[in-house]
Amino acid sequence: MLNPQKIKAMKTGDVLFEADPRNPGAGSLMFRRLKNSIAVSLRYNVDGKRQYQPIGHYALTDDSQGMTLKELREAHKELAVIREKQPDLKVYFDQLDFEKQRQERLAAIEASKGSFDDLLVAYIDERTRAGMSDNSIQDVIRFKRNDCDFHPALMTMRACDVEPSHINMILTPILQREKYRQAAKVRSYLHAAFAFGLKHDNITGRAVTGQTFGIKHNPVAATSFEDAHKKLATKAITRALNNAELAQFYKTCDAANSGISWPLAQLFKMVIASGGQRIDQLCRLPWSNVRGSYLHIIDSKGRGNIPRDHLVPHTERTRTIMVELEQITGDHSHPFSIKVDKPFSVASFSQAVTRWLQTDYAVIGTQKIPAFTPRDLRRTMTQLMKREGVQDSASNEIQSHGLTGVVVRHYNNDPKASLPSKQRTMDQVERILCRVLSEAPTENVISLRA
């Protein structure tokens, strides 16, 4: 057996061995004297072949780094126990390293899994890059800020750990406020966000960001609020103005004491005059999109919210509205505005109609006009065209209804090709409005500034 004196007396290049007499098959400790240290390995045989397993270095002094002779002998015993199950220590430690690396990789993957908040941010970013309309993007941002960020502990959870019960934590307070449509909308956005997360980690060609979500199921799919849906059904939007109500609103919305600013009143009149275009899309139009012979609307409604060009030919009525607006807001970025650099906010539409409904103008004879919203004007025009014999296909075309799918994207994808048929429809709409409003058809041609 070796002792510290023999080991320290070694000269550079010397080699000493120490075997355990009680376990001769356990191999030998091998001490090799290097220039400034003594390296220690275990020498052993596997299937007749000599192998060496490094253990460490011998501590030459009490203050130097390394292992004492006692510690080296303990290490020898531990390796002997391992060799009883795995005779080849190289294979054993290779497997140990592999398992360690595997666990480190798994830990890194787990650590990289994004939170619920990360998922919503990534979804908003993806929808923005996909061309989702600004209004829809702002809707998602608002619901995240107002309905989700209110639950900070939930937002910091990993997205893959979110369960239906957590989704209900977001939806229940909205339902308790009887905001049924809002709850349905928030649920729809959450469902879309988790559907995006399910695909996110496996999108071919996706830019590598280092963040994954590891989502295995969509927790929103398992949620429902049947009672709320029943209430939603009873509050389904079916309101449409009759001809008398439409004429009353059109003729008085821009009156001095109507409760509606004159530029905003022109927006309401344009919705009607243009055959029921979506009010938020009309409001966002810059001046460059209304000059010329048609309104150039960017329509991003429908499946996927992918923007497409929707051209609506001018009539003398729509052109007159724009010419009159040009005298007031011609130096603004948008026709329908009171601020130089941005259009009206969406919230102002309903507020303005509510104010009008509180005036004496909202009375026909002795009957108060029932409440309606700005969006009801679109439905009103749809039903008016139907009653007056405008074909459904022509009405849908002028209102950009159902104009999605493979045929539209790949074949009927030239918006200018439909201008002649749209012009005929708009001429019909103008004649209908003249009758409803008890006006004579306009013959004068008014031009917008180029």
Walk me through the topology.
Blueprint: H1 4-8, E1 15-19, E2 28-33, E3 38-46, E4 49-57, H2 69-85, H3 89-112, H4 116-129, H5 134-148, H6 152-155, H7 164-176, H8 180-200, H9 226-234, H10 243-252, H11 262-273, H12 279-283, E5 294-299, E6 308-313, H13 316-329, H14 347-357, E7 363-364, E8 367-368, H15 376-387, H16 392-399, H17 406-410, H18 419-436
Helix pairs in contact: 4-5, 4-8, 7-8, 11-13, 15-16, 16-18
Describe the 3D structure.
It is a single chain. With 450 residues, this protein is of the alpha+beta class. It has 3 domains: 4-111, no CATH class; 116-234, DNA polymerase, domain 1 (Orthogonal Bundle); 243-436, Intergrase catalytic core (hpI Integrase, Chain A, Orthogonal Bundle), CATH 1.10.443.10. It is built from 18 helices and 8 strands. The chain has helices at residues 4-8, 69-85, 89-112, 116-129, 134-148, 152-155, 164-176, 180-200, 226-234, 243-252, 262-273, 279-283, 316-329, 347-357, 376-387, 392-399, 406-410, 419-436; strands spanning 15-19, 28-33, 38-46, 49-57, 294-299, 308-313, 363-364, 367-368. Strands 1-2-3-4 form a 4-stranded antiparallel beta sheet, with helices on one face. Helix 4 runs antiparallel to helix 5 (134-148) and helix 7 packs antiparallel against helix 8. The chain starts with a helix and ends in a 14-residue tail after the last helix. 26% of the residues are buried. The mean pLDDT is 87.
